[in-house]
Amino acid sequence: MDHGEIVRQAKAASVQLITFLFCDNGGIIRGKATHVSGLERKLDSGMGLTLAMQAMTDMDQLLVVEGMGPVGEVRLIPDTGTFTHLPYAPKRALMLCDLITVSRQPWDACPRSFLKRTLARAESMGLTIQAAMEPEWYLATKAGEKFTPIDTSLDNASIGATFAQDVVDDVVAALQTQGLRVQQYYPELGHGQHELSIEHDGALRAADNHLIYRETVRNVAWRHGMYASFAPKPFPEQAGNGLHVHLSAWDASGETNLFYDSSDPHNLSPMAYHFIGGIMEHLPALVALTCPSMNSYRRLSPGSWSTAFTCWGPDNREAALRIPSLFWGSEMASTNLEFRPSDSSSNPYISLGGLIAAGLDGIERELRPRREQWIDVDPVRLTAEELESRGIVRLPQSLPEAIAALEGDPLLLDAMGPALSNSYLAIRRADWELFSQRDVEFELRHHFYKF
Ligand code: GLU
Ligand code: MG
After folding, report:
1. What's the pLDDT tens digit per position in 201-248?
2. How close is the Cα of 188 to the center of ligand 1, in Å?
3. Domain match, 443 and 296 both
4. Domain residue limits at 359
């Protein structure tokens, strides 16, 4: 959008502050706001940001990372197409930003630029990647330091919808007003847990949308006197919060879903199988990008539908990669892959960038997923011998295991580049060092409403 037009829109809506937002290596959404009087200038010059931000942990500890100390700046440069007037804070607007060096180049440690680079590679291969993020979250109240779910409702139960109706209706209205297309809603399994999904979009827009979504749910809940939690496992005794990622690859015109092939028993094209092959090949390392927090590993466990094993399968909600059945009348359009070991403590640009880089590697190398890892039962029903003979193993069971897998995956490290991968790994290691010294209560408290 033209800069003058943005300023006109902001003024017409009586907006005072416009926040330039980004998501850091720790999955935290951060930003700085300009007053509307300085907006035009800031649209051109960006807002200054210390390089140290990408070396800052979720607890605001500054780590020692090469090139990310107190000296030096990048610019938060907004993508003007993301200008969003905030229905829950009518005097405010936001824009999502790239981190650009003072010499006007994308900064190597910018997560959004990593996703853009990866999508440009996909485009050079003739592919337009579509993605949808499927978020789950809890609504809770807080007394002292203790959070409690707002009700004791059941999975898909209308009673849960009743209790949360006012806040959920406001969330839906706010999302729609901001241009996110709400797809479906239901009260989830956990007490006070909800799932409200957004239609798929181009992968960059899907990542931007997920940040707008997290902001919206947290803010609307807050205005209703509640806390929204996107933490992977805010209540150890309740279901986890997933952020399942749905992916498909379309042709350059965006008209044909290249993952669909009606002649295949599972309606998947050879390209889709190669993409799956790439994801399965890089699976343990990808988990470090998609389940990056200490709290993530409380969620990833067998028997909780959050997935725990390296397998793929048809509508299998205990498989790392679910191949969803198609919808009548929209078979081609509904063909997609669902990656399930993923949660909202991830940075959506980094997780989508990693997943797509892995899939493209599969296409380039014509990888095929292992047939023995295709299962149509809950993996916990297979014996240890059966799992072993099929090559099915547990996903990383702790943050250090995931970190080690990422450290051992040159393709993903190369795709991220050294500045992003080194700072990202430093943050993840520091997370482990800090939280592994503390008790569960400390971990839950410090993850509850950060994401
Ligand atoms: N809450 C589950 C998870 O942690 C997912 C439940 C579902 O299949 O929607 O991913
Ligand atoms: Mg769900």
Report:
1. 999 999 999 999 999 999 999 999 999 999 999 999 999 999 999 999
2. 8
3. yes
4. 117-447
pTM of structure? 0.98
CATH number at residue 14: 3.10.20.70
Whether residue 86 is found in the same domain as residue 130 = no
Mutual angle of helices 348-364 and 111-124, in 10-degree steps: 30
Which of 50, 85, 107 is the last residue before a domain boundary? 107
371 in a structural domain = yes
Q: Is the CB of 306 under 6 A from ligand 1?
A: yes
Most ligand 1 atoms within 8 A of CB, residue of 155, 340, 344, 345 to mutate: 340
Instruction: Give the count of domains, the chain.
Output: 2
**Closest ligand 1 atom, residue 317 Cα:** 8
- CA proximity to 221, closest of 280, 286, 150: 150
Q: Which two tokens stand for residue 210?
A: 């997920």
pLDDT digits over 256-307, tens only?
A: 999 999 999 999 999 999 999 999 999 999 999 999 999 999 999 999 999 9
Q: What residues pack around ion ligand 2 (CB closer than 5 A)?
A: 195
